[in-house]
Amino acid sequence: MAGLSGSGLVSDVQGTDTRDFDNDFYKAGFSLGAFVNRQISDKNILQLEINYIQKGAEQVPDSNNNGYFKLTLNYIEVPVLLRHRIHFNANNKFYNNFEWELGVSGGYLFSYNFISGTGYSYTYSTGSLNTIDISVLGGINYILSPSVYVGLRYSNSLIPVMKRNNLPSTFNQYSLAFNDGNNLVWAFSLKYVIAGKQEVSKE
């Protein structure tokens, strides 16, 4: 099967919030791409995607209009993942429309943009960013029809977009130091199959 996909997403980069040192996922973005897959067993599908995805981080201004920044990271990303169909019964009804998915992705940062306001003192230059992104991802899908399915996906990078030797001192205040500088993304996607059809059990 082959198809097209679009996603709305929220993202963050752990450690860039200098106000309360948490991940607020204020940065909205999107992803557009295409996919191909192959059925490898009754319940399992191997899927390859290529996407343009906009990640990044944002801190909204405080009540005095201080502390604003927005970092936009533009990637070409290639995820490879396993989709597994879930079969279960609930209230005497059979369900076969849900899937879980797990995989990895490789990405290339081809451009970025950074703007900031009063009270945000850090800057992010080309030299402070890693251009290669390796992420792990997982999610759940719901098949609406043989041609359409929707999904919720989370991804977490293994290579920090912020090079560790260029991290602001505030990064050290995080309890999850292993994740400092990493891309974190929640995405809600709509995928449309344009060649081939996925089976939806009527049992």
Structure description:
The chain is mainly beta. The chain has no helices and 8 strands. Strands 1-2-3-4-5-6-7-8 form an 8-stranded antiparallel β-barrel. The two termini are 23 Å apart. 30% of the residues are buried. The model has no long low-confidence stretch (mean pLDDT 88).
Summary keywords:
single chain, 203 residues, 0% helix, elongated
Structural class: mainly beta
- What is the quaternary state of this protein? single chain
The overall strand count is 8
Question: What level of helicity do the residues show?
Answer: under 10%
Question: What would you call the shape?
Answer: elongated
Strand content: over 45%
Give the low-confidence spans.
none
Radius of gyration: 19 Å
Q: Spatial order of the strands in the main sheet?
A: 1-2-3-4-5-6-7-8
Mean pLDDT: 88
Distance between the termini: 23 Å
Report the total helices: 0
Tell me the major beta sheet.
8 strands, antiparallel, barrel
